[in-house]
Amino acid sequence: MYAIREDPAIVDPPAEALTGYSPGPMTPPLTKVLIANRGEIAVRVIRACHEMGIPTVAVYSEVDRTALHVRNAFEAVCIGPAPSSESYLRGEAILEAARLTGATAIHPGYGFLSENAAFAQSVIDAGLNWIGPPPSAIDAMGSKTRARQRMVAAGVPVVPGTVEAIAEEADAERIALEIGYPVMLKAAGGGGGKGMRRVDRAEDFPAAWRATRGEARRSFKDDAVYLEKFVENPKHVEIQVLADQFGHTVHLFERDCSVQRRNQKVVEETPCPVLSEATREAMAQVAVRAAAAVGYVGAGTCEFLYSQATGEFYFLEMNTRLQVEHPITELVTGVDLVRAQLRIAAGEPLWFSQSDLRQTGHAIECRIYAEDPANNFAPAPGRIEGLREPGGPWVRVDSGVYAGYEVPIHYDPMIAKLVCWGRDRAEAISRSIRALREYRVRGIQTSIPFFRALLADPDFVKGEYSTGYLSPERLAQFAAAERNSRIAVMAAAIARLEADSRPVRPVASEGNTSAWRMSGRVRR
After folding, report:
1. Of the candidates 289, 482, 448, which has an alpha carbon nearest to the alpha carbon of residue 369?
2. How confident is the model at residue 6, as a pLDDT?
3. Which member of 5, 342, 430, 476 has the greatest number of CB atoms within 10 A?
4. Domain map of the chain by residue range?
5. Residue 419 dihedral angles phi and psi, to the nearest 5°
6. What does the longest C-alpha to C-alpha distance in the chain come to?
7. Catalytically annotated residues
8. Separation CA 119–CA 115 (nearest Å)
9. What is each CA distance from 501 to 7, 497, 521, in whole angstroms?
10. How far apart are CA 433 and CA 439, in angstroms?
11. CATH number corresponding to 4-131
């Protein structure tokens, strides 16, 4: 039923390679880990496993047969056709792949089934190690309305709004008037920027209500919607937490994720350039309290809105998984979060305390998408004809592609993440721009030119931007710059071609009879 690819040149590491990761009580061992994901995050997890001497199993759809995560794993199993609903979202196929390969643990990465409490429970019921939080914690935070209820009960500040889904449009309109416009309509089961709409006027509410419920139904098979007060020009700040199986929880400081397009993060940085130490500490303590309130285990992230005008912050939601932007936290703290997930899942207590953690320097992440910024960021799948990733000190590229790889249309268009560290924010920005200039992807359009314009923008450099920074007008400005850049490159290429095709004639050159002139220039 499933085809297994095994590379006979790769053998399992010796048993002694696994020493130091003895499991806790009733914890299945990490003798072989299946990664229930694809792309750059699957590659990232595979690398961490191999560093720890743990064999890996990749799963892949038919269109991902030649993907990088498949090439990097010790074994790989095809779990279905290209659509994620027929492959990466099929829990039973993933469990069967684990059974066929003898995997003892499953790491879900992010997206797909990573925050599916029922799947997590099915992994545990199958006698496997789930490298993630308990299903009860996923369930508690999975519904945004239930999460709000739990946080209110725990004394965590939340954005003013409803703590339950609203069934009737008339009730929602009444509550919106009571809270005051603008308001946000949000899908209770939402995530990834989907199922969210800002409403500025009462007359716009009915259309927004119907559109939000429809998107929620299509995206999450749940049309439950709740309502929040819209915080004007906020920062989107999140706190990374890490908890072991013995009740110890620490935070690894914050990330600023305010640069968003269509409610989806595109650039993240740490530390947040506008947070005071007092606010940072207060927000971090709230995150630790929120994690403890649901019995959290492993790596998780609490998201907040921070008002630059008032200095107040509000809990938004908790992501019960590894975040896309986790590398910037790794660069400023020195903690490998994926290895930490594995060690915690193996039953180890935390090997450091809060007082051992500190932020050093500044880090920025740019999500590299196979998109065309000059064409309203339309997906740009296709074959990567050439690839040159940047390098140098403190430059990291988490990539899921290679030269010759065919980027499929079926999944999220992010193909890599560029992460740069600097001693301070100015150095991190300049290093990121330098790396973006070096980055070459030939054969498809990418968001690299867009990021070059963004990081050089004066408003970004000041660091006082909010979630509304990437307005339609600013996006149009960056897109125009990209189009002009392409025109300039084409014009330069044509001029060079014309110059090189002009006839060559010898010229007199005192003391050098080997000089020749082409297009008015002397070549020696």
Report:
1. 448
2. 37
3. 342
4. 4-131, 160-229, 234-481
5. -125, 125
6. 92
7. 321
8. 8
9. 51, 6, 13
10. 10
11. 3.40.50.20
Look at residue 4 in the predicted model and tell me its pLDDT.
39
Cα 13 to Cα 140: distance, rounded to the nearest angstrom: 38
Chunk the chain into consecutive blocks of 10 residues (it has 524) and report each block's average pLDDT, rounded to whole numbers.
33 33 64 98 98 98 98 98 97 98 98 97 98 96 84 86 90 93 88 83 95 89 89 93 97 98 94 97 96 96 94 93 98 98 97 97 98 92 98 98 98 97 98 98 97 96 94 87 63 70 59 46 42
Q: How many CB atoms lie within 10 A of CB 272?
A: 23
User: By CB neighbour count within 10 A (0-12 exposed, 13-18 middle, 19+ buried), where does 495 fall?
Assistant: exposed
Q: Could you tell me which CATH number the domain at 160-229 has?
A: 3.30.1490.20
Contact (Cβ atoms closer than 8 angstroms) between residue 135 and residue 124: yes
Full DSSP string of 343-386: HHHTTPPPSS-GGG----SEEEEEEEESEEGGGTTEE--EE--E
Residue with tokens 């019995």: 295
Per CATH, is 234-481 categorized as 3.30.470.20? Answer: yes
Neighbours of 296 (CB within 10 A): 25
Task: Return left, alpha or beta for 413; rule: phi > 0 is left, psi -120 to 50 is alpha, else beta.
Answer: alpha
Gyration radius (Cα) of the chain, Å = 25
DSSP 29: P
Type of residue found at 71 = R
Instruction: Give yes or no for a contact between 88 and 37, defined as CB atoms under 8 angstroms apart.
Output: yes
Size of the chain in residues: 524
pLDDT at 498: 72
**For the chain, how many helices (H) and strands (E)?**
15, 26
Question: Alpha helices of 392-521 — where are they, by DSSP H?
Answer: 425-438, 448-455, 458-462, 472-500
Reported as type and span, the H/E element at residue 335 is none
Residue 223 gets the label, from left (phi > 0), alpha (psi -120 to 50) or beta, of alpha
